[in-house]
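ARCHIVE RECORD
Type: protein–small molecule complex
Small molecule: 5-S-methyl-5-thio-alpha-D-ribofuranose
Source of inputs: curated submission
Record status: active
Notes field left blank by submitter.
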Amino acid sequence: MTLLTDKKYEPLTEHSAIDLAIKLGIFAENSTLTCSEIGDGNLNLVFRITDTTSGQGIIIKQALPYAKVVGESWPLTLKRAKIEADALKIFGKLAPDYVPVVHFTDDQLAITVMDDLSHLTIARKGFIRGDQYPLLSKHLGEYLAKTLFYTSDFGMNQSKKKELLGQFINPELCKITEDLIFTDPYTDSPTNSYESELQATVDKIRNDQELIFQVALLKMSFLTEAEVLLHGDLHTGSVFASSTETKVIDSEFAFYGPAGFDIGQVFANLLFQALANVEKKSEILTHVETFWNEFVLHFSELWKTNNQEPHAAIPGLYESVLNKYFNDSLGFAGCELIRRTIGLAHVADLDSIEDNEQRINAKKQTLSLGSLLIKSRKEIKSFTDFLTLLTKSL
Ligand code: SR1
Ligand code: MG
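STRUCTURE (tokenized, with ligand):
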């Protein structure tokens, strides 16, 4: 929905965000409102506006015409706000328990107005401070089973899927992923950043021809395999959580790609916690297992009950599709582990380890696990094999 088409784009301030919320009729003109810019991601402005009397709030998210993490030298399309809002609406219909409600959008201003989730915590921050999220992995498994299945050729009309694919052509944001995940970490790119103590390990990665070949294959899969509508950036910073609730946000990287990409990002971003703190190994492995089991439980049920593909019942097809998703996810998880350690966009799980030696060792272990998953993903025949490998490697 475009509500304010006469408005020219300009970045909101805390003051103009309040004006906008009143103009949109979200709050009465005489309400006492407070606003703070709370965006801590790499790309956007995020304003939380609260009515001090009722305590009720909303979020206005606005895309900037450049990547905030780098600055104005890295221009970026505002169209991503529309992609994000459209994806949130689709995912919200498919998995309503796990997606915030979108109230308004304006393509010109590149804004999305959505539920205030401030009673929840960004899962990565919560994990780092020791919060427990007993239902998070179960919820993410169900969320992904539903969003991936219902946007695939198995879960929706196959002609409509092609139209949806066209709606989510997202070249600029995909290019960020292609560069930052699949290319830059394996070259001497100025976007990379890592401690000098990692240089020898980085050199080893860049000289590992088998590893680079496998990364190139995974990149080809990302570029060409339009299996499902992906979230496209499903790390723990894109998830708000509490002990009872889980909400997936930040879908501006959404596009049609290989299902294993979202699954692998969830695996990797859970694993950062175990790599950062060995005491969390058992908690995190339980999350990894619960996430996968829940994904399979829902996906297999949807496959049996809602399949649109006439060949769906052919013996072996379900197993073949699921094995492909699983196998791909291990490779994509490996790429995520590596790029978050030596590429442009790091994770606080590792970077916040204060002790230098401990941090470097955790990062070396992350790079080693990443390489192993990428290179040996096809030999990992079952989820049990994966768990055994993780138990040995962490
Ligand atoms: C320039 S954007 C860097 C990273 O932030 C986003 O959340 C994506 O993960 C992207 O790769
Ligand atoms: Mg994001």
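CURATOR ANNOTATION: The radius of gyration is 21 Å.
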